[in-house]
């Protein structure tokens, strides 16, 4: 055993090898040394257990593999073949090219993030985007924070710190990742007051709950679920009428937030513009869902309330980054021309694409596959979903590939390990790729990944 351990070459000797010298130029000498030590430590364990120790060439080969593996970015692009357009685990909405173009100059240089070019004095990052949000929603004022949960938390903290927040029991939702509205209210300093029942809440329930300690009425959009049957709800217009009489502000958390309801082939429902028109004092929603922009929490409402939110100390913790502001502004500008938004915002375009067009792209993609793979891929009708907690009962007719003749779990794992990874779904014991979420121009890459995965025995 002692002899085996002594046969392991030293780190310094291995570092002198030509391969190690080249790696040092690419990855840095210290990084190469660290990985070599890891590999040698593994070999010492092998020697201690009585197993043979590889020669220096094998140690260097293992080191090279590890260096390359560790150099791969942890966050990287994937091909989305799941059919879930706003897939939370895959980063939700892809950004429009206009948003990407807006990022580069701001990311690669200095910007007027908090500098007023007109006066030459310090400005506010919250001046960016706010006018666009105000104009597109018809609100008096607007504010952008880093996500919608932060937006709700900031509103509750400012308007109902150590006071009561009235919420219908049917709207006490979990918004994903085990984050629940009751917990957000509690952590934000509010005291939750539940009214009504899970399936039926009336305006009288709210009226009876209002008292001296009431700070806020919060209406929450049940984005990721629906209650059917014996149900009753209170409209935002009814709540705002009650709030005016009682002097209690109303906040409307929309979750996804569909800015232009006639832009998508989805059932109409109140969005940011409608919430503002109904008289909500403050409205909150997400930037990276149905809007199709970056992760952000968008807040708009009365000038008085938005001014208070800007002065809240928590805003520092929730403040938005310059890259988010650049991408969000570019995305919002597209909405000033609905026709441009329909074509140039990827999530919107995916949701609008007719099933026939999706099928045509799936058929065209077969041309890039080997003959063996083409014969094994069936083009079948599929159903895509919106995702992002929006429209849970809505499916969109789609089409894609189903692989016949390979174990679906093995093919799925090989596609997932490819570069770039292809994420599909297993349905009816077949590995399937839904082409609604395969973006135009990605068909050749998808064909290559599937063909290479198919060739592995």
Write the layout of secondary structure elements.
Layout: H1 2-6, H2 11-15, H3 18-27, H4 29-48, H5 56-71, E1 79-80, E2 84-86, H6 97-108, E3 115-116, E4 121-122, H7 130-137, E5 141-145, H8 148-160, E6 164-168, H9 181-187, E7 191-195, H10 203-209, E8 214-220, H11 236-246, E9 250-255, H12 272-277, E10 282-286, E11 297-301, H13 303-310, H14 314-318, H15 322-334, H16 338-344, H17 346-352, H18 355-365, H19 371-376, E12 377-387, E13 390-403, H20 408-416, E14 422-423, E15 425-427, E16 430-434, H21 443-455
Parallel strand pairs: 1-14, 2-12, 6-7, 6-8, 8-9, 9-10
Antiparallel strand pairs: 3-4, 5-11, 10-11, 12-13, 13-16, 15-16
Helix pairs in contact: 3-4, 3-5, 4-5, 6-15, 16-17, 18-21
Q: What does this protein look like?
A:
The protein has 457 residues and is of the alpha/beta class. It folds into 3 domains: 2-71, no CATH class; 79-89 and 349-455, Alpha-Beta Complex (Aspartate Aminotransferase, domain 1), CATH 3.90.1150.110; 97-344, 3-Layer(aba) Sandwich (Aspartate Aminotransferase, domain 2), CATH 3.40.640. It has 21 helices and 16 strands. It has a 7-stranded mixed β-sheet with strand order 5-11-10-9-8-6-7, with helices on both faces. Strands 2-12-13-16-15 form a 5-stranded mixed β-sheet. The chain has a two-stranded parallel ribbon with strand order 1-14. Helix 9 links the parallel strand 6 and strand 7. Helix 3 (18-27) crosses helix 4 (29-48) and helix 3 packs parallel to helix 5. It is globular. The protein starts with a helix and ends with a helix. The relative contact order is 0.13.
């Amino acid at each position: 055993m002692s002899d085996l351990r002594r046969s392991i070459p030293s780190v310094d000797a291995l570092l002198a090898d030509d391969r190690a010298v080249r790696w040092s130029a690419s990855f840095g000498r210290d990084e190469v040394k660290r990985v070599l030590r890891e590999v040698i430590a593994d070999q010492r364990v092998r020697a201690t257990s009585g197993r043979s120790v590889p020669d220096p060439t094998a140690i260097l080969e293992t080191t090279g593999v590890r260096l390359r593996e560790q150099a791969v970015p942890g966050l990287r692009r994937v091909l989305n073949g799941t059919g879930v357009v706003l897939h939370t685990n895959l980063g939700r909405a892809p950004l429009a090219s206009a948003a990407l173009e807006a990022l580069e100059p701001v990311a690669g240089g200095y910007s007027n993030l908090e500098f007023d070019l007109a006066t030459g004095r310090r400005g506010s990052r919250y001046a960016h985007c706010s006018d666009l949000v105000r104009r597109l929603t018809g609100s008096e004022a607007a504010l952008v924070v880093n996500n919608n949960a932060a937006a709700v938390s900031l509103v509750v903290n400012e308007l109902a710190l150590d006071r009561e927040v009235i919420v219908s029991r049917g709207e006490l939702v979990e918004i994903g990742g085990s984050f629940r509205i009751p917990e957000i209210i509690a952590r934000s300093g509010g005291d939750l007051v539940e009214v009504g029942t899970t399936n039926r809440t009336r305006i009288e329930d709210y009226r009876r709950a209002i008292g001296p300690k009431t700070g806020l009425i919060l209406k929450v959009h049940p984005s990721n679920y629906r209650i059917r049957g014996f149900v009753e709800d209170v409209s935002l217009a009814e709540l705002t009428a009650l709030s005016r009489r009682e002097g209690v502000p109303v906040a409307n958390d929309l979750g996804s937030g569909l800015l232009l309801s006639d832009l998508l082939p989805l059932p109409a429902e109140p969005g940011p513009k409608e919430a503002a028109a109904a008289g909500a004092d403050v409205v909150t929603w997400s930037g990276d869902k149905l809007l199709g922009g970056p992760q952000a929490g968008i807040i708009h409402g009365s000038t008085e309330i938005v001014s208070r939110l800007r002065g809240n100390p928590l805003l520092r913790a929730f403040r938005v980054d310059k890259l988010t502001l650049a991408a969000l502004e570019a995305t919002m500008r597209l909405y000033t021309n609905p026709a441009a938004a329909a074509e140039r915002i990827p999530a919107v375009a995916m949701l609008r694409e007719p099933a026939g067009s999706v099928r045509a792209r799936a058929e065209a993609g077969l041309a890039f596959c080997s003959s063996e793979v083409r014969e094994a891929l069936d083009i079948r009708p599929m159903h895509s979903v919106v995702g992002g907690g929006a429209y849970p009962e809505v499916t969109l007719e789609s089409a894609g590939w189903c692989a016949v003749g390979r174990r679906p779990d093995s093919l799925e794992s090989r596609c997932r390990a490819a570069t770039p990874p292809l994420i599909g779904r297993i349905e009816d014991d077949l590995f399937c790729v839904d082409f609604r979420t395969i973006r135009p121009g990605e068909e050749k890459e998808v064909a290559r990944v599937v063909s290479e995965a198919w060739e592995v025995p």
